[in-house]
């Protein structure tokens, strides 16, 4: 999946719609984190990351379960097309947590100055499926506010 540059990722912290939730575990300062965008009427779970040494221990599942217990609107996330074993495992991980894999998707815009291979993504939605109208609205919001964010925070 595409990643932002360090500078671009750091700039997100000034945006009012972007939040990071951090989890800790015994012996670890940071066990993992969830990054979300608060978009109109939904939450976009952009990242779930767990320390490599802790993967497979249930921390990621517990983080997502706790996150979902506190959300007040639908949650949407992107996954790579299930063309590899790893991508299929990620989809299954989210399905076990109640996410639905939709038929909708798009190619992720390039976030780095160098051209890289385009990444085809599918959309997953929680707690229910997604209509075409909801998908088109999400795609518009994510394009305008996530992939091309305008600096509107305290320093912008």
From TrEMBL:
Coiled coil: none
Domain N-acetyltransferase: 1-116
Gene Ontology MF term list: acyltransferase activity, transferring groups other than amino-acyl groups
Superkingdom of the organism of origin: Bacteria
Signal peptide: none
Listed Gene3D superfamilies: 3.40.630.30
Protein name: GNAT family N-acetyltransferase
């Amino acid at each position: 999946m595409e990643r932002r540059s360090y500078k671009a990722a750091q700039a997100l912290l000034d945006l009012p719609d972007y939040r990071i939730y951090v989890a800790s575990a015994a012996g670890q300062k940071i066990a993992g984190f969830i990054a979300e965008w608060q978009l109109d009427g939904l939450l976009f779970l952009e990242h779930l990351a767990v320390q490599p040494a802790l993967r497979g221990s249930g921390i990621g599942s517990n983080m997502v379960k706790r996150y979902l217990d506190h959300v007040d609107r639908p949650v949407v996330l992107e996954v790579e097309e299930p063309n590899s074993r790893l991508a299929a495992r990620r989809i299954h991980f989210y399905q076990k947590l109640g996410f639905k894999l939709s038929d909708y998707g798009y190619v992720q815009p390039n976030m780095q100055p160098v051209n890289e291979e385009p990444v085809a993504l599918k959309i997953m939605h929680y707690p229910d499926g997604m209509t075409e109208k909801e998908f088109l609205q999400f795609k518009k919001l994510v394009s305008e506010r996530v992939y091309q964010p305008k600096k509107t925070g305290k320093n912008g």
